[in-house]
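SAMPLE LOG
Freezer: B-3
Tube label: C17
Construct: single chain, 235 aa
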Amino acid sequence: MPAGAHIDAHRHDDHQIVYAGRGVLSVTTGAGTWVAPATRAIWIPAGTVHRHLAHGELDLHLVGLPVTENPLRLDAPAVLAVGPLLRELILAYTREPRDDGPERRRLRAVLLDQLRISPQQPIHLPAPTDSRLVAVCAMLHRDPSDDRTLAALGAEVGASERTLTRLFGSDLGMTFPQWRTQLRLYHALRLLAEDVAVTVVAHRCGWSSTSAFISVFRGTFGHTPGAYRAGTRAR
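STRUCTURE (predicted):
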């Protein structure tokens, strides 16, 4: 899929594992947005209405599973870690020809085993429902480098810091700092997929320094943003 391409809202009768071998994929449902670079895959349960958006040139791979087979025992979308073995299994399973011979069945069995032990490592932006929280989140989506306090943002939407703090917990299930970090990582992945320089990404996404950005990125994804960009180009 080319950068910026999208697949409109749709649903499947089967479960899906969605993996981007190159680029960054975001999947959005009514409950929020899940984001996956090439070290992650997104689990989409059967019947979930969702849409896709490509950030950077996207190499998309889809693995369908019957609704009776749920190796993750999850009924909501999730982002899963994809190590080298699981990556190769997904790539091999989604190559042609897609017969149903014994070799393919064995490959599928190993793939499912790997899925069962893959930890969840989400970049997830829950969708707010309260109008005041919607307004705050929209402001920060437009400018993730906005470093105003929650009190200052609340003054813009007519809500106190205490009210917004409560709403982040009850509506989104995380604190304001946690949500803002997820938002900044989401935008950082998008920009890196578009080949924007690491220093520019750090600035645009609101980190106080490039080193601070690198530290958070490494802590979340296990490697530096520079290594991520190099790996993405080499795939």
